[in-house]
Amino acid sequence: MMKAIKPTLVLLIITTVVSALLIVTYNLTYVDTSGIITEKMRLACEELMGEGEYEIVTDWEAAGYSISKPDNVEKLIRKSDGTVAFEIITSGYSKNGLDMLIAMNSDGTVKGVTVVSIGETPGLGTKVQNSDFLAQYNGKGGELTVVKTAPAADNEIEAVTSATYSSKGVTKAVNIAISTYKELGGAK
Question: Do 43 and 112 share a structural domain?
Answer without folding.
Answer: yes
